[in-house]
Amino acid sequence: MPSRTHLTDRLGIELPIISAPMGGGIAGPALAAAVSAAGGLGLLPIWPMPGDRASREIEAVRRATKAPFGVNLNVAFGPAAHIELALAQAVPVMHFFWGDAAPFVARAKSGGATVMVTVGSSAEARRARDAGADVLVAQGLEAGGHVWGRTGLHALVPMAVDAGLPVVAAGGIADGRSLAAATLLGASGALVGTALIVADESEAHADYKQAILRASESDTAHGTVFDVGWPDAPCRVLRNSTVEAWERAGSPPSGKRPGEGDIVARDAANNPIPRYSVAPPSRGFEGNIEAMAMYAGQGAGLVKQTGSAAAIVSGLVKDAQALLRRQDW
Predict the structure, then answer these.
(1) Is residue 307 classed as helix, strand or coil in its secondary structure?
(2) Distance, CA of 273 to CA of 279 (rounded, Å)
(3) Residue 104 to residue 186: CA distance in whole angstroms
(4) Which of 17, 24, 283, 304 sits a CA distance of 20 to 30 A from 207?
(5) 3-class secondary-structure state, position 234
(6) Angle at the Cα of 36 from the Cα atoms of 33 and 42, rounded to 5 degrees
(7) Residue 197 vs residues 12, 20, 98, 255: alpha-carbon distances, Å
(8) How many whole angstroms separate alpha carbon 208 and alpha carbon 193?
């Protein structure tokens, strides 16, 4: 794939890779800044944060790199206050997900920001385009973390491309082959999460990183089992003892699940983390890390080594370019 695409031109970046806005502290300022400094676009998920913390983390990214970066905003939790914060700090890119962003796009663009919107269907792609979005993120069912999409990536990307905007493919892209495939479907770049969880700059707990490195494509589960803090929001996680116990019990609804109310871990500030919490394990967590929500996409089986975010990003692009140059594949 070419290093320059419609996406890189629109965002003012060098490489068509965007880091997934992994919440729970996993994608903090260090990872966002590292991806941006490497030529991609780092995304900082500020929507769960109080305003003062969000401001500090935006400034931390700015201190670490002069390259463009973006913030991630959650429509379901009311993004208005964080839009104003991002406008006040002249954040160059705003990314909306989990709902209809149309009511918020104009305000987000009023300060000159480029707006990206996650979509899960062709109808959503057209609605986001008509609202003024600049870039679409087509999230397939293969994706890790909270999954807005309900359609596989290979079916979704071409339909999103037909809306006429640059499309970022999201879901299962963790090596050059999957990036090359997304390019052939019409995507101008990719949003990468699972492959960056193991990056040196990621705040993921060491046990979480090792679980990713050991995983295969069949080691994930999709559903709403981890919902304490965000009910009724499907997500894809690594299969673990919590998931398996829930399944053995017949997959009961919230309120009737085995071990509900158990405290499985504590965060770096010693706050208790109950079983079924949406919080992923980051550095400083202690306890039964294996039982927590370890978000991962179906591309987990492609992730085999750690390294710097720069090495991961550049390796994805170089491997995809080499594949696309081949004449015998």
Answers:
(1) strand
(2) 8
(3) 27
(4) 17
(5) coil
(6) 75
(7) 25, 9, 21, 31
(8) 13
Indicate the DSSP class of residue 203.
Answer: -
CB 159 within 8 A of CB 139: no
Token couple for 236: 């894809």
Q: Can you list the domains of the chain with their CATH numbers? A: 6-201+304-325 (3.20.20.70), 206-299 (no CATH)
Structure tokens at 34: 């590292």
Q: How far apart are CA 304 and CA 284, in angstroms?
A: 24
Strand 189-192 vs strand 167-170: parallel, antiparallel, or unpaired? Answer: parallel
The pair of structure tokens assigned to 114 is: 């480029």
**Residues 268/203, Cβ–Cβ less than 8 Å:** no
Other CB atoms closer than 10 Å to residue 326's CB: what's the count? 8
CA 37 to chain centre: 18
The Cα-based distances of 316 to 185, 196, 206, 326 in angstroms read 17, 11, 23, 16
Digit-by-digit pLDDT tens for the chain (329 residues) are 566 789 999 999 999 999 999 999 999 999 999 999 999 999 999 999 999 999 999 999 999 999 999 999 999 999 999 999 999 999 999 999 999 999 999 999 999 999 999 999 999 999 999 999 999 999 999 999 999 989 999 999 999 999 999 999 999 999 999 999 999 999 999 999 999 999 999 999 999 999 999 999 899 999 999 999 999 999 999 999 999 999 999 999 999 999 999 999 999 999 999 999 999 999 999 999 999 999 999 999 999 989 999 999 999 999 999 999 885 54
Half-sphere exposure of 227 toward its Cβ, with a 13 Å CA cutoff? 15
Angle, CA 225 vertex, CA 221 and CA 227 arms, to 5°: 130
Structure tokens at 190: 């990719």
